[in-house]
Design brief:
24 helices; 8-stranded mixed sheet; globular; two-stranded antiparallel ribbon; alpha+beta
Length: 761
Amino acid sequence: MTGIPDGPFPVPAPPDEQREWVDAGLNTPGVNTAREALESFAPFVVDLKGMLTAPDRDGKRRFTESALRNVHTEAGEMLVAVVRMHGAGGSVWEYNERISSSWHSLANPAALREEERSLSHVRPYTRVKSDGSEEILAAVESVTASREVLVANLEKAAKELSQREGSRPYDLEQDLILNGQQEPGLYLAQHVRIEEPPLRDSEGNFRHPTEHWHWMAVRGNNRTERRQRIYGVTSAEVLAGMPVKRIGGDGEQIIFDPNIWLTRLSELLNAEYAMYLKTAGAKEMDEVPRAVHASKVAVVESHLVVGCPTPRRLYRIVQMSNRRDHVHPPLEFTPNDRGRALGRSTLGIYVAEGALDEEMAAVLSGSAPISDLPGIPSDAKVSEMRDIRSMQLLRELFPVDRRKRLLIRRALSESPPSQLSAPEVNRRARAWSALTSESYPNPWNPRIAEVFQLADIRDGLDPSRRRLPELLAAAEDDDGAFEELIAFRAAHWLAAFDIIDADRGSLTGQKTDDEGTQAARVRRTVKNNLMAMRNHRRKAVGVLRELASAMDEGDRRPRKVAESGEPLVEPMNRAWFNREFPKESGARTRGSSVARTRGSGSGGPAPTASTGRPPSAGTPAGTGRDGAGGHETAGRNASATGQDSGPHTSGEPMGLAAADNPSGDAPSAGSPGAHGSAPQGDGVSGLPALAEELEQKVRLLVEEVSALRTVTVRLADRAREESVAHPLSRQEADGAGLGMMTAEVELRRLRSVLDGMAEPL
């Protein structure tokens, strides 16, 4: 591509220069992408010759060393070419993890709903060589039903990306207009094949191509979308054909060759730019043309993935390179997408280290259907297929295998097992929950799974291999089967149908129920819900069976169940659940078993010696230790030390009562729970409960600070939109600032107190 002296927007280089650039790339050691991929991108490259070496003795050129970068990730490595690209180049990627929950996942075995859209399976790009053998190249490929579906998916991806900016504290589009693009995007070649035969014209020629090559943004999706918005084009048009109306023409014609439409676009923009410069000094223009807005992004630096020694894993490798930017501020994922990204990172490390095969990892990460798993029963229904995947995810994220335990520590930067903390356990739980939800129609709050006990998970979790129909059939009489269903399935199933939700930290944060405000005022921890189900076993088994039936019948609304467990006619909802499994019945008594157990590969949680029954607390949902060992829990739901709605009984350990009182109301002076202390002679220390309450308060503080920032930014944006220079009075601003300073001072004091209480490094 060569620049035009009269404007900043370059046009494609001559065909012979493009061919020379493609040949040089393929001659470069380590480059193993497809020729067609490089050919499709060559029109967008600026200064092709500047990337090439002088011809060697055989007359061959290569990419210069300065134009290449080796990028290492925990899933593998790749070779990247640094290019200067026309700002209209590249395309958004519908497989971007930040918008993964916007699609019907391949991991969801249920039928596609009318309002849902799904994405095709992305596979390594494979071509057949002249000798008949197959060769995997550094690219990926997918098959789409039609051109219409291809365009619609790209348009949906651009829309979803624009609505998920993360925590970016500035206007990205204005930043690009004013300052240009400072950070390069990372682009990967994707081959898209269209299944539907294309329409033909009167002469029998295809009206559109049957396949496309495009370079999708693995990193920099939002920048790509905003750049193209500034240019007045879309990724769908860059990939699938540019309407002539976009580039100054008339009619309905679509141009598919970028050498043609990119030339016209640049010429049009250069003309607009020249006209603006000519008239700007003479008079005030009513509107700044798009060419002026786009001038700072006329050419941008971009990184192209052109090589990979393990191309079969390339999809996972490029995803891994993007995750660290988005699981931490300032561009963090939503909690659900963040949990999925962390889980996929772990699976990627397992694959790279040979601890997990690629096929299994693809299913667990959501990029392949569950039916691809070996050994899936031929008669498995939707509920069972979801369950098989969820239980395997649980085993992988809380592994028993010592090698995997070391790898997941490395993936998540965790403490040693003996020092594993509640936040670290909860992070794994959220990853398990978020990836599990990918098999369901709608994601839920992944904090629903924050019910694991530190003592119970240090050596890993290995639920039984019993089939789900067997567990459901035996649950009324088989303690192990019932406990497995409650401990590992119930919370997710109830959340999937919006029957329960993770505690949101305040009464006003709870969702309003179908049957009025009373239900909306019930604050419950997930542990309390599960314990109430344990204490109403027959009805709980009926609920679980009905939820499984609802999944198998198109994810219909589940029905209420009678005391006998038989389904009724009316639909189940949150208010009904809170009445039938009341909060008070979820409070554990002193007689509740708190023994530490771990599921085995062939059976359920082991019965306790004292009761002969499985631990009522469950493998993830029970308590960690009793008596002198203290009450140890990883769940943030067990957070307060106050009493429940009734008086604290002398037979109930204080730590257990705390788990069912998330409101944080302090006990009255002199009461058994005052100051977080346990009753004399109870043998249970109140310190763990207080420590957990501190942890929850800090989490809520962080959430409130984030909300404060959001409100502040919204206020500033609204004031700018309405041209209000000073939306706050001096008194309002000073008052808010003083409050922030006061909070900052108190927080600094508390930090020193915390340091004094912490164990030595």
